[in-house]
Amino acid sequence: MRIDELLKGAFERLTFASETAQLDAQLLLAHVLSVSTSYFYTWPEKQVDAADIERFNTLLTRRAQGEPVAYLLGHQAFWSLELEVAPCTLIPRADTERLVEVALSVLDVSKTSRILDLGTGTGAIALSLAAEQPKAAVVGVDLIEEAVELAKRNALRNKIDNVAFMQSRWFDALEGCEPFDLIVSNPPYIDPNDVHLSQGDVRFEPKSALVADNHGMADIEHIIQSAQRFMKHNAYLMFEHGYDQAAAVREALKAAGFVGVESFQDLGQNDRVTIGQYP
């Protein structure tokens, strides 16, 4: 079958399953054929053999059932990096790049900063900061051992060597370590009863990385209460959080004695990142 015919049928098949059906189809076929999507515009008449069509149809079926494209491909772009992804971790999203931007804006590039990423998952935040700040010493921790190994592979994949990953439930494995200039986290922040948990890609992502008690605030509050013992004076603590949680996060930071508390909006103009400074 010709490439253009195959893509047309795939698009129609995915139309009711995805808002990005055409792109999804192109990405999956490019993956099967080991080409870039631009190849399809140059060679639409090229024939695809039966074995590749079968592989493509298998991926289409999984996508039509809602499985995220990133899991099907096994990788996802984030910041300037290409990251391996797996069902043991969240898929890095564009909104989280806002957290990286805000973090970079407060770092002193003239010194060797120590940075901690709590709940690192794929290592997306830690690796992006390490790549942009080669003088920095970055540590990423995650409760899931499989995620820690994945983050380590992503460091090797992107040739970043100023970062270390370790297994820890938040600060548990960090007792006695040198304090940090910056602590960042994209923790679980979705209410267990949120209807969005049964919709879209999040149906396939690990609930342990998505859901927190107390209306999604439990892990954020735990980190705020524990963080100061691991921070230098004038260090920053910052979170990615839900679109409707900024006020609660600001209140929690202020109640714990943080100053300069401020929220920043994401691409959709929702409050997405909140920071505070340890005085």
TrEMBL record:
<protein>
    <recommendedName>
        <fullName>Release factor glutamine methyltransferase</fullName>
        <ecNumber>2.1.1.297</ecNumber>
    </recommendedName>
</protein>
<dbReference type="InterPro" id="IPR040758">
    <property type="entry name" value="PrmC_N"/>
</dbReference>
<dbReference type="Pfam" id="PF13847">
    <property type="entry name" value="Methyltransf_31"/>
</dbReference>
<dbReference type="InterPro" id="IPR029063">
    <property type="entry name" value="SAM-dependent_MTases_sf"/>
</dbReference>
<feature type="binding site">
    <location>
        <begin position="119"/>
        <end position="123"/>
    </location>
    <ligand>
        <name>S-adenosyl-L-methionine</name>
    </ligand>
</feature>
<dbReference type="GO" id="GO:0008168">
    <property type="term" value="F:methyltransferase activity"/>
</dbReference>
<feature type="domain" description="Release factor glutamine methyltransferase N-terminal">
    <location>
        <begin position="5"/>
        <end position="74"/>
    </location>
</feature>
<dbReference type="GO" id="GO:0032259">
    <property type="term" value="P:methylation"/>
</dbReference>
<keyword id="KW-0808">Transferase</keyword>
<comment type="similarity">
    <text>Belongs to the protein N5-glutamine methyltransferase family. PrmC subfamily.</text>
</comment>
<feature type="binding site">
    <location>
        <position position="186"/>
    </location>
    <ligand>
        <name>S-adenosyl-L-methionine</name>
    </ligand>
</feature>
<keyword id="KW-0949">S-adenosyl-L-methionine</keyword>
<comment type="function">
    <text>Methylates the class 1 translation termination release factors RF1/PrfA and RF2/PrfB on the glutamine residue of the universally conserved GGQ motif.</text>
</comment>
<feature type="domain" description="Methyltransferase">
    <location>
        <begin position="111"/>
        <end position="247"/>
    </location>
</feature>
<dbReference type="Pfam" id="PF17827">
    <property type="entry name" value="PrmC_N"/>
</dbReference>
<dbReference type="InterPro" id="IPR025714">
    <property type="entry name" value="Methyltranfer_dom"/>
</dbReference>
<dbReference type="InterPro" id="IPR019874">
    <property type="entry name" value="RF_methyltr_PrmC"/>
</dbReference>
<dbReference type="InterPro" id="IPR050320">
    <property type="entry name" value="N5-glutamine_MTase"/>
</dbReference>
<feature type="binding site">
    <location>
        <begin position="186"/>
        <end position="189"/>
    </location>
    <ligand>
        <name>substrate</name>
    </ligand>
</feature>
<keyword id="KW-0489">Methyltransferase</keyword>
<feature type="binding site">
    <location>
        <position position="170"/>
    </location>
    <ligand>
        <name>S-adenosyl-L-methionine</name>
    </ligand>
</feature>
<dbReference type="InterPro" id="IPR002052">
    <property type="entry name" value="DNA_methylase_N6_adenine_CS"/>
</dbReference>
<dbReference type="InterPro" id="IPR004556">
    <property type="entry name" value="HemK-like"/>
</dbReference>
<feature type="binding site">
    <location>
        <position position="142"/>
    </location>
    <ligand>
        <name>S-adenosyl-L-methionine</name>
    </ligand>
</feature>
